[in-house]
Amino acid sequence: MKIDKKTILKIAKLSKIKLKENEIEEFANNLSSILDWVEQLNETDTDNIEPLNNVSSSKLPLREDKTVSNNSSNQVLNNAPEKVEEYFIVPKVVE
Amino acid sequence: MDFKSIKEIKTHLLKRKISIFELNEFFIDKIKKSKINAFIFFDEDLIRKRCKELDSIKNDLPLKGIPIGVKDLFCTKGIKTTAGSKILQNFVPTYESFVTNKLNNSGSVMIGKTNLDEFAMGSSTTTSYYGDTINPIATDKNLVPGGSSGGSAAAVSANLCLGATGTDTGGSIRQPASFCGVVGIKPTYGLCSRWGIIAFASSLDQAGIFSNNVEDASILLKEIAGYDKNDSTSSDITIPNYFKKINENIEGKVIGIPKEYDLPNIPDEIKIVWEKARKKLEKGGAKIINISLKHTKYALPTYYIIAPAEASSNLARYDGVRYGYRSKSQNNLEEMYESTRSEGFGNEVKRRILIGTYVLSAGYYDAYYIKAQKVRKLISNDFNDAFKECDAILTPTTPSPAFQIGQKEDDPIKMYLNDIFTVPASLAGIPGISIPFGKSKDNLPLGIQILSKHFNEQVLFDLGLFLEKNNE
Asked: For residue A57, what are the contacts with CB-CB under 8 A and spacing of at least 6?
């Protein structure tokens, strides 16, 4: 699968990653060769196979869906790059 | 006094031949003199404070006073946790991971946070924002310690701590253990809680242990395992006392040798060591049988769809809003997100996010992601069938000894091939251990890998102890 410039820019947009001009080609090439390499999975016959999305062999217990608070909002906010009082600050969204 | 075995040091501490302070000062001194960049975070005053606290506790604890390194992927309350990334350079968790909390309750001393490949993505510890870790085995050769848990493996190997935690998604404990000549165990998926471990690929991520010897690994694993309601994939099983039950008598054990691991391009030095281990086990009374794990060759491509797909989803949270790095370019929200992620993530992480986003995008999801999950099922079935015939599987841990820093960096697929022997077990969620066994032709450590069925870590310790005692 050849990844062209348009596709890599679309993927980058979806990933919210801005690529520099020289990175566009590099990543396009990387992705093309990785996708070529994974193509070999098509050799396998998986017609009657269920996708495996949980490898656990033991019973996974359920818990009650209850909220708990450890009153750490101040500490949590301390990690914010920008904050005012009890709010995270982001660039203006609505004019 | 030799500070290499937790089992022995426990005895010295109990008999008061040495104090917790003396023990930890020894390691503080060694870390300060060390030049291998194994740690991202190290604070000697904090260690001394912890020693005082432990000294005031009257009763004994399983790991009282034992210095343990913690991979900087585990959240530590009040202590910076970076995942080896610039994007988390200022992140201070408000809570403690389940695994490190257990270690703290067992009385261990958190000696420092160890270096790793950024977000645990890599096999060399050269993608860390905080510099390369040097393999301590031969510092003049400038070799990688392996990865992603390279700092932990190097720290144990250089005797900068008595054990360390790691995480293994596709080989990130076993491969560096092999490169650094230490023991590394990745337990069954679900044995140790993922709560508080910065997520990479959630269906594969599993915490584990590095140690100087198999007995120590059996002691440490018990201390970090156990059910946790905060991890929905955590298994509610009774954790055996591996150390107490350990038994190096391997008579009658059936060991499978998978023919698909005997690849034509694997160097002779690896095959020779594999053969030697096989013969040793046979001499010890084990029965060796040939087995087939048919879909082995599809494990790496399967992994490199599933892991990046899950990573692209898990890493969506790094947006510069609530924590971590934020770019200065923020004329609007979109630009802030994009600039933050572009400046905050390194190349390997970006590459995996891009692949993951691609394989999950509309029109490709079934062709890549669902297909990979189906092949994952085939790989898992192979192992289930094999374990009907044998108790354990013996393979090399890695296709080569440690390589030079900078090598393999131009070609991502070449780097991914490092995990060729470790990835299949990760996909099947089965446990695996790497034991130092034999040497390469350049006298570098090599590892032998033992795999078993779900929750049978005991057989890994039993066979591992036998091989450790019968290593030349």
From this structure: B429, B454, B455
